[in-house]
Amino acid sequence: ARSFADIGDIVRGRDLYGGGRNKRRHEKDAERDHLEQKLIGIFAKIYNDVTSSARNTRTNGAEPRYLDGSGDFFQLREDCRTANLDTVWGAFSCCADPGNAYFRPTCSGGDPTTGYCRCNGDQPDADKENIDPPTYLDYVPPYL
Q: What is the pTM of this model?
């Protein structure tokens, strides 16, 4: 199973897994290179859609921000992952059943997290500190 961190790292082109780089006998490209080319193609379409003036009267600086010489669209990939992080985290945590074992039953202070992985009565959209997705769970095997 892949965690959101793993998928996000693949989208950004920064994942730690380097496998699939060897070509198989009957394939012209390695699996990993094929995936990278597909991602570049997807983000090229997103870039063209965001910066096209036919639909958008203003691009709000998107063209100079995302135009890089390499054509890999790494900044656009990073921004897409960042924009989706809160939404995916909300789906992971806020829709959890009370008996769900996805989160630890206690926080550092001993109070239960009540299904949101937040301590001290913090609820989603309450604009309190510490509402960002906790990054310490990203690469911990029991939480992947």
A: 0.50
